[in-house]
Amino acid sequence: MSHHYLLPDISQPGKIGCSLPELDVAPAELPAGELLRREVGLPEVSEVELVRYFTALSKLNYGVDTGFYPLGSCTMKYNPKLHEDIVKLPGLASIHPYQPVESVQGALQLMFELQEYLAEITGMSATSLAPMAGAQGELTGILMVKAYHQNRGDKARRKILVPDSAHGTNPATSVMCGFETNAVPSDENGNLDFKSLESMMNEEVAGLTLTLPNTLGLFDPQILEISRLVHERGGLLIGDGANLNSVLGKVKFGELGVDCVQLNLHKTFSTPHGGGGPGSGPVCVQASLADFLPSPLVIKNGKGYTFTSPAKSIGRLGAAYGNFGVMVKAYAYIRSLGAEGLREVSENAVLNANYLKEKLKAYYHLPYDRTCMHEVVFSGKKQKEKGVKTLDIAKRLLDYGFHPPTVYFPLVVDEALMIEPTETESKATLDAYIDTMKEIAREAEEDPEILHTAPHNTPVRRLDEVKAAREPDLRWELGK
Amino acid sequence: MPSPYLANNDADRQAMLRDIGVSSVEELFKDVPEKYRNANFKLPSPLSELELKEEMRQLSNRNANLEDYTCFLGAGYYRHFIPSVVGHITGRSEFYTAYTPYQAEVSQGTLQTIYEYQSLVCQLTGMEVSNAGMYDGSTAAAEAALMAWRITRKGKIAALSTVSPRYLRVIETYVSGHSIPLEKVEPNLDGLSADCACLVVQQPNFFGYFEDMAAYAQKAHGAGALLVAIVDPVSLGMFKSPADYGADIIVAEGQALGNPTSFGGPGLGIFTCRKDYLRQMPGRIVGKTVDVDGKPGYVLTMATREQHIRRERATSNICTNEALVALATAVYLATLGKEGLRQVAELCYHKAHYAASAIAKLEGYSLVFQQPFFEEFVVRCPVAPSQISDVLFKEGIIGGLDISDMIDNGMLFCVTEVNTKSEIDRLVEILGKFRGIKK
Fold first, then answer.
1. Range of the domain at B233
2. Which one of A356, B98, B352, B411 has the largest count of C-beta atoms within 10 Å of its C-beta?
3. What is the pLDDT of residues A366-406, one digit of tens each?
4. Are residues B175 and B275 in the same domain?
5. B157 Ramachandran zone, left/alpha/beta (phi>0; psi -120 to 50)
6. Are A472 and B76 in contact (CB < 8 Å)?
7. From the list B85, B96, B299, which residue is nearest A51 (CB)?
8. Which residues in A lie closer than 8 A to residue B169 (C-beta atoms)?
9. Which of residues 358-397 of A touch B (CB under 8 A)?
10. Is the minimum CB–CB distance between A338 and chain B shorter than 8 Å?
11. Closest partner residue to B118 among A43, A64, A475, by Cβ?
């Protein structure tokens, strides 16, 4: 049931989707005509037609509420419905960021307590909630690292080391902050190649970005040696908390020597992804970096809660205080689970991933056969030998009603299939998925054509991405 | 008590551990150095759904909300009427529980709505292309400055002093990474120096009034710089867009289009530009194409600009954006449509002018600027604005923004279609009580 029409196709003059009040004051004189616009080229559609159009579109989507969504590195866990209700409370949804602080003490209390909870969860001394997504949290971290070295009068550190398994945001962020990046290779066990790190970590390096556990879903057992080496050579250890779901309530990054880490509230703290956002990417830091945090922070004083700006702040990251609506959901999540509940999250996430790993490793090549954390990365190598690509496997999963895993990432694994089941999935769901993956492995051997042509029963089939990029059609124009 | 968010019971867990071949979950954490494996966490005790709901209700009640209070505060975040349709569409979990639409075959809902969003926003700003959105208006402005810097390869960013001070600070943070200087210029500038990558302007500006876009476009282009304009999207319902004067990049805070103020976030950074600069744009872009059967469909496209493909050579590090807010914005624009948005803009315009002229007639009050304005205006008050705010608040009114740090006793008021005549009259009445009080 693909939808071949767009808003202009159902637009007709004289229709509108809502009613508006009459003007209740005397009209003012209009300004000079040259300032005024003749008309706005927006469609005209009735309410019922709009609702049916967007409802039909929603049905073309697959969400966590639809089914299993084991997208590696994305932590697509179930999102509590309670969160959707509380975020609409008038005192949380309908408050203005520039209201007097005395009139928003509840909001500031929530932010203050969330700052404290996240600092406790990461084992750090201070938190900024300002970053609006993980990548902006990374930007915050790298800008703080830059400010930290400059403040010490050390101007020679112009490089950031980034593991070759890292997310693309890590190198992209470093470059946005004016650094050069060097890729540190992984070793044969999927850990950071320590010898390479030793040779690369010099007085030109401001820091090492490290996803914990790494994007292969593996916890690097050399973490303490890595942290010691980076610090001995004058650098900082910049954690990427994208994979916190594996050690939530178990391990404190700060105790491992991480200097700053960004979290993804929209992953770990169960706020839905919204088809790509909004997110929230708080940054937690050791005391040595606290003065550089972005402005503002929430503090508590004798009169209640208020905003303050750290002494050597890197500046502002947005016109307000970050994505408050996402903070509300993360706050509710932490309050509903407590320390014990958070620990159960990571334990169940890790258990689910290892179960999948054990059950599927006879069917798909497992490049690093060791205990994994919250996700497992397979390679489609075996199937590739039969002419079946990882992309074909992913598309075939759609036919069976599952969302595919993340594919072709991390880059260090050939034909990567990165599966993150999360803690909210049942054994029954995992078993159904395992059976399907086995069936697909069988099809790859016996009937590869069915994989090459998959998916067969989705609203649309494989789309021509080359055409999309070469002949950009990025919008409609009304009347054309 | 078992957590409702976990779907396995103890029997499931035992069976899984057996199949994995370990005796406890603890063994699965063996790669974590033992000493740090089970840290102690001091967090409040867990709450049941019922208790938590009540606790959140109490927190909410400690805030003065804009449904109970009358609001005349704007300055970048605006309270406008949100038709019920918007929340019902964004409340469909097929939309809000989906990830970024990387698997196009099962994400056509998200992809097609983004295509609608890109189209609607282009129609509104009058620009040729739009991305799928940035974090907020200020980061969109900052990314626009960086984009101009990449396009022109010039070393400096110029911005008008009439741009929102918070936006200027965000731009400053973003350009600091490359040590690019941000130079603030006055509205009466003669021209721009040749080393400027762009001129950043705001229309209407932070103080609410319209500036001469044609003159700025001429000055920017004369110096080989791009014109980056920040707009109030609702004003475009009746006023010309800077696109009509040759702006190269137009950005806006999209919150006003169908979204609650939500203490300033989530918002939406609208980002549109001329087609020539498409490949330098930051962020995601959706394009229309066909599937193997020739059926039309939508995909994320031009990904070679983005971090997950281009890594250190990406146009930006942005990944997660504000997709659900962009959906709300698209639904809002479609719901109001051509006539609705004009009506909303006109209601704001007339009510704001009604309020401004009534306040200006009060003894001791005056309008600071005489230029045409839309829904915001600066009043010089007879006493410190903070003093007025306190009294207004006791009367159930959230007053304008205190900008006495920029303009002596200045208060920036905002009036939108949600403010009734009686609310405005009440505001004017209370303001009138300050007459005769010495500064």
1. 85-332
2. B98
3. 999 999 999 999 999 999 999 999 999 999 999 999 999 99
4. yes
5. beta
6. no
7. B85
8. 315-316
9. 358-359, 370-371, 373, 394-395
10. yes
11. A475
**Whether the predicted pLDDT of B2 surpasses 90:** no
Domains and CATH numbers, chain A: 84-337 (3.40.640.10), 341-465 (3.90.1150.10)
Please tell me the total count of domains within chain B: 2
Residue B55 lies in a domain: no
Residues B384 and B411 in one domain: yes
Kindly state whether residues B388 and B258 are assigned to the same domain: no
| A184/B contact by beta carbon, under 8 A | no
Q: Which among A338, A354, A474 has CB closest to B20?
A: A354
Query: Which is nearest to A462 in space by CA: B301, B106, B305?
Result: B106
Of A6, A47, A478, the CB nearest to B123: A478
H or E stretch covering A396: helix A390-399
pLDDT of residue A32: 86
Give the per-residue pLDDT at A2: 44
pLDDT tens-place string over residues B356-381: 999 999 999 999 999 999 999 999 99
Which residues in chain B are closer than 8 Å to A26, comparing Cβ atoms? Answer: 350, 354
**pLDDT reading at A479 higher than 70:** no
Contacts of A76 in chain B (CB under 8 A): 99
Helix count and strand count (H, E) for chain B: 12, 15
CB contact under 8 A, A25 and B351: yes
B428 in the same domain as B380? yes
Q: Which chain B residues touch A338 with a CB distance below 8 Å?
A: 43-47
Look at residues A143, A90, A253 and name the one whose alpha carbon lies nearest to residue B142: A143
In a domain, B427, yes or no: yes
Task: Answer whether A296 touches B (CB < 8 Å).
Answer: no
ipTM of this complex prediction, to 2 decimal places: 0.97
In terms of domains, do B383 and B291 share one? no
Same domain, B241 and B380: no
What is the pLDDT, as a whole number, of residue B303? 85
Beta-sheet strand order (sheet of A205-211): A126-128, A283-285, A260-262, A236-240, A205-211, A159-163, A180-184
Which among B14, B71, B99 is the top mutation candidate for probing chain A, defined by the most A β-carbons within 10 Å of its own β-carbon?
A: B99
- CB nearest A463 (choices: B119, B240, B289): B289
Same domain, B166 and B187: yes
Q: Output the DSSP codes for B217-249.
A: HHHHHHTT-EEEEEE-GGGGGTB--GGGGT-SE
Q: What is the pTM of this model?
A: 0.97
Q: Identify the CATH number of the domain in which residue B362 sits.
A: 3.90.1150.10
The answer to the question of residue B35 being in a domain is no
Task: Match 């650098």 to its residue by tokens.
Answer: A235
Assess whether pLDDT exceeds 70 at residue B438. no
Test the A interface: residue of B9, B26, B38, B56 with most A CBs within 10 Å:
B56
Beta-strand ranges (E) seen in B127-192 are 129-130, 156-160, 182-185
- Which of B312, B332, B352 corresponds to the end of one domain? B332
Domain boundary at B332, B361, B383, which?
B332
> Does B361 lie in the same domain as B267?
no
Q: Give the amino acid at A187.
A: D
- CATH classification at residue B305: 3.40.640.10
In a domain, B24, yes or no: no
The DSSP secondary structure of A295-347, one letter per residue, reads BPEEEEETTEEEEE--TT---BSSSSSS-HHHHHHHHHHHHHHHHHHHHHHHH
Q: Which residues in chain A are contacts of B133 at CB distance < 8 A?
A: 277
From chain B, the residues in CB contact with A461 under 8 A are 105, 291-293, 295
Give per-residue burial for A236-268: e unless 16+ CB within 10 Å, then b. bbbbbbbbbbbbbbbbbbbebbbbbbbbbbbbb
pLDDT digit string, tens, across residues B282-322: 999 999 999 999 999 999 998 888 878 788 888 888 898 99
Whether the pLDDT of residue A1 is over 50: the answer is no
Contacts of A427 in chain B (CB under 8 A): 8, 12, 15-16
